Amino acid sequence: MLRPDHLFPHDLTNSHHQDLAQNVEELMHHGPSRQFSDLVRTTSRLSTTSMLQGAKVEDMTQAQLCTALKTDADSGLSEEKAAARLLKDGPNQLTQEPRLGLFMLFLLQLTSFIIILLIIAAIASIVVNATNEGKRDEILSYTTGMAIFVLVILNAGIAAYTEHQAGNALDALAKLSQPEVSVLRSGERLSVPTVDVVRGDIVLLETGDVVPADLRLIEASDVKVDEKALTGEPDDVSKNTKIKEQTKLTPENMVFSGCPVASGKCKGVVVATGMDTRIGEIAKMMANEDTKTSGGLCDCLPASAENKTPLQENVESLGARIGILAIVICAVVFVIGLLIGTKDPEYPENPSWIYMILIAVTLAVAAIPEGIPLCVTISLAIGCQEMVKENVQVRKIAAVETLGSASVICSDKTGTLTEGKMTMTKMWSGNVEYYLTGQGFDPTKGQIMRANAVLPPGATSNGDLGVRTTLLAALLCSDTELFEAEDPTTGERAWQYRGNSSEAPIVVAARKAGLPKDASQAYRRLVNIPFSSARKMMLTVSDVRGRQVLCDGGMALPPNCQAFTVCKGAPNWIIQSCSSILREDGSVAPLSEGEKQQINNSVVDAYSDQALRVLAVAVGCIQQPPFELENEDIPVDQKFEALRSGLTLVGMVASLDPDREGVQESVIAARSAGIRVVMITGDYLKTAIAIARRVDILQPQDDVGESAVDCNSLRPNGDDYLPDERIDDMTARVRVFARAKPADKLEIVKSLQRQGLVCAMTGDGVNDAPALNEARIGVAMGLQGTEVAKGASEMILTDDNFTSIVRAVEKGRAIYAGIQKFVAFIMSVHIAEVIQIFWCVVTSMPLMRTPLQILFLILVTDLPPSIALGMEPGERNILEQPPRPKDEPIVLNWMWVSILLNGFVLSAVIIGVYIISLQHYVGVVFLKDILRLKEEAGDSQDEIDALLARARTVAFISLVFCENVRAYICRSFSEPVWVDLCTNPVMQKAVLMAQAAMLCAVLIPFFSDEILGLDGLHIGWWGWTFSLVGPVATTILCELCKLLTKCQMRRYQERLKRKEGYYLEGSEDEITSSDSTDSDLAQG
């Protein structure tokens, strides 16, 4: 859910206006997620209270507004007044919700069931030794209890630190350097940081600036603002200073924070900043949703469940069940030990119940998988860091595991599947077609070439008359400029544009054709009539007095031509305004109705079918102006009607938003992974279909009528959506949704997830936040996305590239698979430990190892390989496997079979090694015989204990060898150990660390014998050699067990494919899913 500490301060907008109420009420009416319902209703109420002195700010005159805000439109605030308001109102940024401190996070870790059991075991160990007269005064007798406490502190500390560091990373986002803005202070124009803007400030904005706060305009010159982030509408919105009845989505005399100025200049007075803005109000209400959680343990600690991922909760639940089972086993073993009178071989005079309590502690330590939560936390944290290499920043750690179950990716088109950089690829002039090479905004790369013509090597068509005339004319009718600047995201210099996105390809193409950078500045503009939705074109008039030709290599101008008219806009509207056409040789010929129709059919429609955005360019020469061209008293519409008649069609330019590199391959890879890719775009259906075919979302054999729809089909009766059943039927088969509104996205996501699918949804605007929040995996755009979208998402694409999503899914699957592997590895270790201790008790053998030795094994020699398993690279066919069901447990039934088999194999091998070692060193095996030997030894009992320690040491060393071998075996549930044996360098390091730790444990004096009770210095060559029998036997037997596991795994995956309806071969890749997943399938 969106939280205020996830938002940048400069992305602020006002929530006090009626337009927001209309917008969010629409979302509520169309069924947004429940957590947004209160937001919508509350915002509706707030929208009617945006007033100053009893009047709405958009309805107040300039004088009333300035009086209410105690500012001056010409000089602004004084520095003193601005400082006072900043102190009173606070900075122009969203306030951050306090995060839990490191100490509180540490305390929360101590409340888990596993940790509580370990604490009880530690206390029991210390109390029993304190009441034992033989051990009470020996400080080393308390090492087990102290070691368990160290383990608890270490586990809780690492988990708390990892979670705290994740929060610090989010804080770092909010501390990025803020942009500056121009304001009037005491009559002087100053640049101040955005965070220092206050109510009443007079802000000056130009093309390319981002609105720093909510402004009421008091001056405006041809201003257009990109409000897509707020309204979802792709077209720039014209703004002015007029006060009139509210009819549009946003007031025409107001601009809102975070919206870029697409063109023009304006001056405005700040009416709202910080948390009083539109996004600020949204952030407050959504933050309130976050705080509506119950307290933690006895309401003394905050609730920690919201900080845990489903996987972590799954693992904790697994650990709790095992912990309960451990208690039962401890009780059973305690009773059995009492009944058979088991004695401590070191202190046989002590009561049996004291020794059995120590054995129960040993069993508890052996049974409780204390290393699993720690490994999961570390693996997920490392996974988040690894995602950064795939251009994915994970905001919520749960996304790492959820990615592995993604079954549908709903993607925007512009900037995600495509570059988001309109590039001119074709143009037409004088009945000649041209194509342009190069991509993006770099004018130094690419040429203009004639289509269907063979040119000499190195030759281009840059100098053709039609090319130069069309591009210069279009340039004269543009307000966009091209420049080279440092890219803030990469630090490299890159070509960028300032102005209108549809004009950027024209400027780039003109530079490719060799026109100078300042070509348009040589023609003084006399008239400028901007594009509007009613006129469908832009018109300019430039001074060309004294010129015989438009430019070098361009069309000739008639004698006494004083002004040059250019119209640029929608082809059908432009062509209808033309009476003549420019021919290839430079002559001008009449344009008949039949030729107009032919151009529309053969050029305009052909380009549109290829998803090209077409603009027509027409010109006119004015020898005797019908009025004074620069007279601003003449109405714009009157000028427009007089100047746009009798034009000459000179050409058309066609631009394309090119596919991102690798998108088609990623779509195909996603399909083979059982993931359906759905395009949801605001573009027209014909354009959406063309692009979907290019990137292979729509395949050649697909029926376009069934697979691509206009979103009006979801709401054929206006704003009322179809019943859920009909929408579900539609979303189950459709892969392209065109002309989509933000509310449509939300309905599509809800429908897909009603069908049991795990949906990843991309978005970049404020209005995308409900859909991002509703989706199991919200994916925000890092470059073009608003901070509201980022705050509502689970992950952010730092490069806005669709291919990064597919790579992240692959990485997420690999991370989850790695976690499954080390969980299986650790669980089999604990099962083996329990079996070994239980065997020793019920067969009256001396205990194989102490609690401290078990802790050392699990945390020092087993933990590094476990973490390495979590970092295991994904198997080669990981994207050929179907997505895992969202309710699939971490350990499947067939995994339990593997775990139990491995546990039994390990137990049998080590018990065999221990029995033979006892026979070799001590000469006897059973406890009663050892006690008899000690009685016979008299004062030499310590020698018997030393021999017993050597037998335990051989079993200990053999177990470490076995576990290190099993770490390699567990890298795959099905593939032999030698497949890709050394592809994980972390594993090699982990095994070396484990071996080094083992050597320290058995060879370092005092630490080895006095603390751990081991004696590696005296086991001789026989002990070291015989310990190698364990890993050899384990490798053979575990590899044989894999044959059964492989068969079970294959059957499970086949059932999963049949259940989910994935056909990884051929064209039948539609997803069909029942409302629920069968329990046997979920369990494997």
Automatic annotation (TrEMBL):
Location relative to the cell: Membrane
Record-level GO cellular component terms: plasma membrane
Transmembrane segments: 102-127, 139-161, 318-341, 353-382, 891-916, 990-1007, 1019-1041
Top EC class for this record: translocase
Statement: the UniProt record of this protein carries the keyword Acetylation: no
Topology within the bilayer: Multi-pass membrane protein
GO biological process, one term: potassium ion import across plasma membrane
Annotated keywords: ATP-binding, Ion transport, Membrane, Nucleotide-binding, Sodium, Sodium transport, Translocase, Transmembrane, Transmembrane helix, Transport
InterPro entries assigned: ATPase_P-typ_cation-transptr_C (IPR006068), ATPase_P-typ_cation-transptr_N (IPR004014), ATPase_P-typ_cyto_dom_N (IPR023299), ATPase_P-typ_P_site (IPR018303), ATPase_P-typ_TM_dom_sf (IPR023298), ATPase_P-typ_transduc_dom_A_sf (IPR008250), ATPase_P-type_domA (IPR059000), Cation_transp_ATPase_P-type (IPR050510)
Annotated PROSITE patterns: ATPASE_E1_E2 (PS00154)
GO molecular function: ATP binding; ATP hydrolysis activity; P-type sodium:potassium-exchanging transporter activity
NCBIfam families: ATPase_P-type
Record-given protein name: P-type sodium-transporting ATPase4
Originating species: Effrenium voratum
